[in-house]
Amino acid sequence: MNEKMDRRKKYTRMVLKESLIELLRKKPMSLITVKEICELADINRSTFYSHYTDVFDLLHSIEDEIVADMIAYLNKYNVTKEEESLYITEKLLEYVALNQEVCKTLISENGDIQFQKRVMKVAQQFLVENWVEVSALDEELYEYLSTFVISGCIHVIKEWLERGMDKSPKEMAKMINTFANKGLASLRSS
Predict the structure, then answer these.
(1) What pLDDT is recorded for position 121?
(2) C-alpha to C-alpha distance for 63 and 68, rounded to whole angstroms
(3) Contact yes or no for 106/62 (Cβ under 8 A)
(4) What is the CATH number of the domain that holds 178?
(5) How confident is the model at residue 119 (pLDDT cuts 50, 70, 90)?
(6) Contact assessment for residue 59 and residue 20, using Cβ atoms and an 8 Å cutoff
(7) Which of 1, 56, 98, 186 has the fewest C-beta atoms under 10 angstroms from its C-beta?
């Protein structure tokens, strides 16, 4: 009986999340109501409130899952080694590809700008911790550098999603790592 309840809870949360993402594709978060989510999910409002306090709580739940997955990926690898950096970038892009609708929606204009800031902060903290360990440069310089690199990565991923993922995660990982490691010089030598 307990397993059946867990499955029902999981199903309810899944359809609520999917409904919010579908609505976010069409309009900004500020215009989405619990009533709309429940109608789309075919769930009673009381059921919604037994899982989430409001629409933003539901959104943060989706974002928390993605950030937790990202942290788990990042903690598996050593990005100071270029081959592992390429591998982790590819794996993160595979994750984005598998969750393309959610990721594309969350980083779109209708998504939550705070989510992008959270993703940037997690990635920046990870890179600063790893880069500073192997370099004589100071932490402040690396904070600026990581902001530059991560902002570029996020916008390249946005563009990739907008183009319907016209390149494989492996091709995109190579491109992103080349840009991050060699910048404009990589274009001159091609």
Answers:
(1) 84
(2) 9
(3) yes
(4) 1.10.357
(5) confident
(6) yes
(7) 1
